[in-house]
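Can't paste images in this forum, so I'm doing it all in text. The chain is below; anyone willing to post the predicted structure tokens underneath?
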Amino acid sequence: MEPTTSALDIPTQAASSRAGDRTTHAVDLPLLNARPGGPAERFAELLSSRHPVTVFLGALVTGYILLAAATTGLGFLLTKVILSVGAISRADERVEVWLAAHRSRSLTSASLVGSIGAGGVVLPIIVAAMLVVFAILRRWRIAVFLLAAIIVESGAYRVTTIFVHRHRPRVFRLESLDVNASFPSGHTAASIAVYGGLVLLLTSRFKNPAVRTVLWTLALVIPPFVAWARLYRGMHHPLDVAAGAFLGIAALVVAVFATRAAGVAAERRDSRRETEPA
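Text version of the structure:
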């Protein structure tokens, strides 16, 4: 595993070149290492004199603002333009009517599991447990990546629901939540941000084909299961779930970008320290 004395889990011994640094790091977690000349490296160059934490926060806040604006704009486009087309609106509602008409005791129990697994109780526990584990192991870049993903996702979701109001499906709903908060599906977004983020980290670290197959199977099963659960329970329309998937994936992209930019900043800071006279 990588050395642990730097603020963002970057080795304090600077290599002879940035390429050498990244070759060493790539053995551990390629996902969190910036591509030479890539956007994360270019962003870090804009704040070349800043502390890695400042670079991380700058990238995170910038990405968050852009994502919140994009999701809100998508919500206005959906509610004001797309759903004004009667055929689309009816098709979006028809799925919910069909699911409500085919409910059963076993499916209802399964949908509850899917909702709880990506809800406001279980996911915070999972994230907190992971943060504690990685903090004890002093794997700070992994910890901040997971924290960043869920913060960006939940923050952008909250902002979007403030400005975008869509009525939940007009069927009997199995949960009592605000009826005007159908867009987007926060459970779907959170499941991708957390479970998808964990799988990305693990598959970046472990190259065994069998392990990677199992992990990617989980990544491809859990979020769709959560999405189905939210549809089944009458809490969201299909287009709301699709928007939630977009939000979750975009939150991961922002978290990766911010962590990579901070890594570049930490590498350069360590290199400067190595070259400074004693």
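The radius of gyration is 21 Å. Residues 1-27 have pLDDT under 50 and may be disordered.
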